[in-house]
Amino acid sequence: MLNSQSLSRQNFFITLGLALAMALIALNQAGAAEDVRKLRLAYSGWEIGTAVAYIGVDAGLFKKHGLEIEELPIRDTLTAGVQSLIGVDLLIGFGNPLAVLQPVANGSDITVIGSHVSFDQYGMGVGSTIGSLKDLKGKKVGVSALGARSDLVARVILRRAGLDPSKDVEMVAAGLAPARALALSKNLVQGVPLNQEVAGEAQKLGIKILEMKSVPVVTDLLLTTRSFIKREEITIRRFMQGYAAAIQFFVSKRDASLSILKKYFPGNQAVSVDTMYDAFSAQLRPLPELNSEALQALVDVGAAVDQRTKNLKPADIIEPRFFDELKNSQFLKDLYIEKVSL
Question: How many C-beta atoms lie closer than 10 Å to residue 125's C-beta?
Fold first, then answer.
C-alpha cells in the first residue's frame, strides 16, 4: 500500500504534469494566434479570380493556411483598380492592360504573381486575296477596340504566324464581331479575329477563315507589389496555397461552391450564377498560370499604344517564383488524388 507521503508525491507530479500540459496548449494557441498573417485583398468585377477568392474566404481555406483576409471589393473595372494597390496588399482583377504596364514602365513595383486565362477557339477572317496569316503583313486587322479581348486574341494569332503585331500590321478599332465582318467584306480591313460561333456564320457568307485554334486570353491577374513581397514573403506563399486550395474546392465541390457564390447575388440571378460557375470551372487549371502567350499579348498592346511601355517584356511584369514553387510542390500533388496536368 502507498503511504500518505507517496500519495502526496504522486498527486504533486500529476498536478504538475497537468499544469505543464495546459501551459503548453496555451502557448501553442497563443503562438498560432500570433502567427496568423493579415492580408488586405481587393478585387474588381466578376470573373474567375473573383469567384475563386469568394470560395477561399467563405470556405475558410485562407484561414486554414494562416491568413486573415480583409476583403475590399472595388468598382474600378476599367483599370482593374491598379491604383487601389495603394492601401491594399493584393488585387485580383483585369481591365485595360495599360493600367498594369504604364505604372511598371514609370518605375512602379507592381508585379503579377499569377493569372487566369480562358482558352477559346478563334480564327482569323481574311479577305479573298489573303492565302495565309503571313500575308497580313502590312495590312489592317480589325478589332473591337485596342486592348479589348479581340485585340489580345489577334495578337496571339499573329505572333504564332511569325508576325510582330506591333510592327507588321496596323490594328484598327472596327467594332463588335458583326461590324468587323462587314468591314472585312468591304475591304476596309484585311483580317478580323472571330470566335468559333461567329466564324461559322461568317463562313456561310463566304468569308475565308484561317487558323481555327485554341487561343489563351487573360481574364484575371493576381497583382501585388515587390515591396510587399519583400516584407511579407510568407504571407504571399500562404495566399497562393489557400488560393490553390480554393481552386481545387471550386472544381470538385460544385454544390458547396454554388451555395457560396449565390450568397453574393440576388435570387433572380441564380440561373446565371449556375451558368457562370460551369463556364469558370471548365476553364480553371490547378494554379493561376502565367501563360506566356497571353502575357505577351498584353505587352504588345502597350507597345502599340504607349511609347513608354514599348520596351517592356513579360518578364518585367511578373514574379513567377511563387507559382513555380507550387507547381512542383508536394502540396499541390496532395490536393489532387488524380494526376493533374499543368
Answer: 27
Query: In whole angstroms, what is the distance from residue 207 CA to residue 205 CA?
Result: 6
Say if strands 90-93 and 37-44 run parallel, antiparallel, or are unpaired: parallel
Grouping H, G, I as helix, E, B as strand and the rest as coil, residue 58 is helix
**pTM metric for this prediction:** 0.82
Higher pLDDT, 277 or 311: 277
pLDDT of 211 higher than 90 = no
Q: Give me 189's grid cell.
A: 480591313
Q: Within a domain: residue 31? A: no
Q: Are 318 and 113 in contact (CB under 8 A)?
A: yes
3-class DSSP assignment, residue 125:
strand
**Residue 3: inside a domain, yes or no?**
no
| Exposed/middle/buried for residue 208 (C-beta within 10 Å: 0-12, 13-18, 19+) | middle
Contact 320, 114 (CB under 8 A): no
On whether both 198 and 235 belong to a single domain, the answer is no
CA distance readout (Å), 57 to 67, 247, 260, 293: 10, 12, 10, 30
Strands, E, within the chain: which ranges? 37-44, 67-74, 90-93, 110-126, 140-143, 170-173, 191-195, 208-225
CA atoms of 21 and 117, how far apart (whole Å): 51
Which cell is 299 given? 505587352
Query: Same domain, yes or no, for 222 and 81?
Result: yes
Q: What pLDDT digit, counting tens, does each position of 1-36 carry?
A: 445 555 454 554 455 555 555 655 554 544 444 588
Same domain, 125 and 241: no
Clarify whether residues 252 and 107 are in a common domain.
Answer: yes
